[in-house]
Design brief:
With 487 residues, the protein is α+β, with helices and mostly antiparallel strands. It contains 17 helices and 19 strands. Strand 18 and strand 19 form a beta hairpin.
């Protein structure tokens, strides 16, 4: 993967002292960070793949300050890198190493502006932590369904700007499907406010969708109106052994058709990852007595408290056992057991870290193509590196597989990781052949920006460039991210 072309990087000239002084005056001492020791946590991402250097970190307190900052930066040609909870995995919120960009942290915009239970909406600022939004919804007997492993630290502005996915996509859709209105600050400092809780508004282009998944390259999301849903009254969580991915997909179809839309999550994993979790994550337990090659974690939720959901799940599993789609199953009988099952799934990424180098792929294919992808991608990687340990898991219900590849036992980590680009290309070529996407839910950022030239439709790329030039003619918003070939 080659670095971004020079014309996509921020200017090599650092901001003038006068510009920095004006920016500091906007946010005041509590919103200004220029001490190197304090800036480090804003300049690198969790895995250490991307480490940059900023001229300063600004922490505005409200949308008016964001507006003033962008107006100043646009007039002075200062590049701005918006950042939320900095939990991203593709370098989208990390500055380049030039030291000329400012990081604009939204963490102080953390107010919940309102909750309308009758309208099933909540209005939040971009810096709100995802878990806090979930809890606010729950306090009004509502559900905000976006859920992912980093929900205790990630911020909703980043979730929306990267179009986050998570475990509930099967039933509720991606982050973009949960948004009714946005407040956005444009590159020149103008504020576009459309914080309406409307499910029907047929007055032209759906402008909010331009900013969802754009990773701060077209504007900075400062607030949003989000959809809420009725809280579940009954939940059934099942850990199910299946003979193959083909059987898992057949079980998925049955689960969807027989549950009347109550199937919330359908997570596929292979045995190797369960073994990693049991070996490295304290407090985890194998739910089944015997080991099997493949498992799915299925969750159903319903507003009915009459036991109908439990009966449906029992019938589903019994019939699947008879037909050979299920080999064994454990159904949580308490909230503690449910949490224990989900801990297995949520600990997989952490557990894999203890097994050495890992080459990761966040990809999606049509649900029907998941078994073929897993078989062919595994064969590709095993042929490329004998002894490699494929660790495939993820949201099979929506076709999103985290196809991670751990180094062979005893191998040299650096030598294995040096094969990352070659392996990425091989896996991504297969994904393209199967009409899939090389980024399912993590975004593009710096990591996959130039790969888009290889995999994205040329007309689509030109439309993206046209939008970028129109909304950000001076290329100050997150330059060198997402959109290749901007001059």
């Amino acid at each position: 993967m080659s670095p971004p072309p020079d014309d996509a990087r921020p200017a090599a000239t650092p901001p003038s002292h006068a510009s920095l002084a004006r920016l500091r005056a906007i946010v005041g001492p509590s919103g200004w960070i220029e001490n190197r020791a304090d800036m480090v946590r804003f300049e690198k991402e969790e895995r250490g793949l991307f480490v940059g250097r900023a001229a300063a970190v600004l922490r505005p307190a409200d949308v008016a300050q964001v507006s003033e900052i962008l107006a100043e930066c646009n007039a002075s040609g200062i590049a701005v890198v918006p950042q939320g909870g900095n939990t991203g995995l593709v370098g989208g919120g990390i500055p380049h190493a030039t030291g000329t960009e400012i990081v604009l942290s939204l963490q102080r915009l953390n107010k919940i502006r309102g909750l309308d239970a009758a309208n099933d909406t909540i209005t939040v600022e971009a810096g709100c932590v995802l878990a806090d939004i979930q809890n606010a919804a729950a306090s009004s007997d509502r559900l905000f369904p976006l859920s992912l492993a980093a929900e205790g630290t990630c911020q909703i502005g980043g979730n929306l700007s990267t179009n986050a996915g998570g475990i509930g996509v099967l039933r509720y859709g991606m982050a973009r499907d949960l948004v009714l209105g946005l407040e956005v600050v444009l590159a020149d400092g103008r504020i576009w406010s459309s914080l309406k809780g409307l499910r029907k508004d047929n007055t032209g282009y759906d402008l909010k969708q331009l900013f969802l998944g754009a990773e701060g390259t077209l504007g900075i999301v400062t607030a949003a109106v989000l959809k809420l849903f009725p809280a579940a009254r009954e939940t059934q969580t099942c850990f199910v052994a299946v003979p193959s991915p083909d059987a898992a997909i057949e079980l998925l179809q049955r689960a969807k058709s027989q549950s009347g839309g109550s199937c919330v999550a359908f997570e596929l994993t292979q045995r190797r990852l369960i073994d990693f979790v049991l070996a490295h994550i304290p407090g985890t337990v194998d739910p089944l007595a015997e080991k099997h090659a493949w498992y799915v974690l299925i969750e159903f939720a319903s507003g009915d408290i009459g036991g109908a959901l439990k009966d449906m799940v029992e019938r589903l599993l019994e019939r699947a056992l008879e037909d050979g789609l299920v080999l064994d199953a454990a159904v949580a009988s308490s909230d503690a057991q449910r949490k224990a099952l989900w801990k297995l799934r949520e600990s997989m990424t952490e557990a894999q870290k203890h097994e050495g180098g890992s080459i990761k792929h966040d990809v999606s294919v049509p649900v029907s193509a998941v078994p073929a992808f897993l078989a062919r991608a595994t064969a590709l990687c095993e042929a490329m590196v004998p002894g490699v340990r494929v660790c495939a898991f993820g949201h099979a219900g929506d076709g999103n597989i985290h196809f991670n590849v751990s180094q062979p036992q005893g191998a040299d980590r650096d030598a294995f990781m040096a094969l990352r680009h070659t392996m990425n290309d091989a896996v991504h070529d297969l994904v393209a052949e199967l009409s899939g996407s090389i980024s399912a839910e993590h975004g593009v950022g710096q990591l996959k920006r130039d790969d888009l030239v290889r995999y994205k439709d040329r007309v689509a790329l030109e439309m993206m460039r046209t939008l970028k030039r129109s909304f950000d003619p001076n290329n100050i918003l997150n330059p060198g991210k997402v959109v290749p070939g901007i001059d």
